[in-house]
Amino acid sequence: MENFARLLKESWTLVEEDRERLSGHFYARLFLLDPALRALFPVQMTGQGDRILEAIVTATQTVDDPESFDEYLRALGRDHRKFHVEASHYETMGVALLDALRSTAGDGWNLEYDQAWREAYASISARMLAGAAADDNPPFWHAEVLTHERHGPDTAVLTVRALQHPMTWQAGQYVSVEAPRHHPRVWRTYSVANAPNEENVLEFHVRTPAGAAGWVSGALVRRTRPGDLLRVAAPMGSMTLDRASTRDILCVAGGVGLAPIKALVEELTRVNRTRWVHVFYGARRPEELYGLPGLEKLVAAHPWLSVTPACSEDPGFDGEIGDISEVVTRYGPWTTHDCYVSGSAAMVRATLRALAADDVPPDNIRYDTFGNL
């Protein structure tokens, strides 16, 4: 296993700096082998290749952790049902992937690398197919938009009801969402911002930069209205509550990274009796702390909960000033806490560094990153 993992990681260094070429060759070969597959993908392919390759690379980089490897791939197989991927497609994709790797790597590629990737892909596809076959849920749920609230020019909070079939998720998980009227076959992941409920209602917090080209986030913020229909795929992710733990809890949220933190706090209002929960919620300016009123209501009802807001670009803010990762360190240490971190990639990296400097055990930290697409 050690040598196998080494070959995969070593060979990946030959192509990782040229992902655009790798992606281009992969899709050109894939659609040449089976032209009918083109209909499963968006009209505009920008970004699509990176996501699929990222999933494959993530899988190959976790082969030295078989338990995580298996769980991740089975979930990935369940998720890919939304693309209408069939068993025969996996074989075609494997041929295209190997061809793209050989072409992109050039003279540095060898037979050992080729065999390692063949075996890795066979293992990947087998687990994905097993995960898909074991799933009794539909490939996706149709979901009706119930409410849509704008918070400034670039943020919206919306609720949807999953139709036709009960949906089961855990607080802290995320789902893929498609807005078929605006961008068919383009999916974007969003954390569910509320704890599970019997009404099949999910809440999403969506941000897209003002003036951005759009895609799914732009459509959800600017063009979605109550009554519209979306598609929502099966829940994924492991940033969930550890019910067996008795440790107090630290939650750090930046921007719309509040979504899974809010869901976790809602879940805790149902089950928590003994754990102190500290939420740090940061943004650049006060008006971006759109979720603060809701958090303050929860604080008033639950004495074990505290919320500390912070702004990084408003020195007059009546609260903590600075990046949320810096603010958290002022209140430590957090070495005896379960820590949940959610926000932009830069914010998460900075917070993880701060927690590492505080000697928080890595096993006590779970996190999610949010981009702007």
From TrEMBL:
Residues annotated as domain Globin: 1-133
Gene3D superfamilies documented for this protein: Globins, Nucleotide-binding domain of ferredoxin-NADP reductase (FNR) module, Translation factors
Enzymatic reactions: 2 nitric oxide + NADPH + 2 O2 = 2 nitrate + NADP(+) + H(+); 2 nitric oxide + NADH + 2 O2 = 2 nitrate + NAD(+) + H(+)
GO molecular function, one term: nitric oxide dioxygenase NAD(P)H activity
EC numbers for this chain: 1.14.12.17
Top EC class for this record: oxidoreductase
Alphabetical UniProt keywords: 2Fe-2S, Heme, Iron, Iron-sulfur, Metal-binding, NAD, NADP, Oxygen transport, Transport
Cofactor(s) demanded: FAD; heme b
Residue ranges of domain FAD-binding FR-type in the record: 138-242
Record has Transport as a keyword: yes
Similarity comment: family membership: Belongs to the globin family. In the C-terminal section; belongs to the flavoprotein pyridine nucleotide cytochrome reductase family.
Protein name per the record: nitric oxide dioxygenase
Source organism (scientific name): Micromonospora chersina
Lineage: Bacteria, Bacillati, Actinomycetota, Actinomycetes, Micromonosporales
